[in-house]
Inverse folding.
């Protein structure tokens, strides 16, 4: 499992999650977002197009990250959820908490100016 983080020209901080988001690596994702927040980033897209599985601790980490980003006046969007992951977000009602797009580009396009 790996994370890659980049900042696009529009000021969107994009984190791509590869593999799984599980108990063993959720802290890495939380730390990456916290570090970005501390350096002034406020618009985040987390892309799951290369992610096959998210466990309950991974979902909890996303909720925690979302809360932190909002508290700092930021915005967090998710993209690239496969059919199973989208169903998971619907079953847990987390699809109502997160703005979810099919692609990272669409998610980034959802930010206002």
């Amino acid at each position: 499992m790996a994370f890659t983080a980049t900042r696009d020209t529009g000021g969107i901080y994009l984190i791509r999650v590869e593999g799984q988001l599980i108990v063993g690596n959720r802290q890495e994702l939380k730390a990456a977002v916290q570090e970005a927040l501390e350096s002034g980033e406020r618009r985040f897209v987390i892309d799951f197009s290369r992610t096959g599985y998210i466990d309950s601790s991974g979902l909890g980490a996303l909720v925690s990250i979302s809360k932190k980003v909002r508290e700092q006046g930021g915005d967090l969007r998710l993209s690239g959820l496969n059919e199973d992951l989208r169903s998971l977000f619907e079953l847990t009602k987390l699809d109502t908490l997160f703005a979810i797009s099919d692609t990272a580009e669409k998610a980034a396009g959802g930010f206002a100016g």
Summary: Helices lie at 26-38, 56-71, 83-91, 104-109.
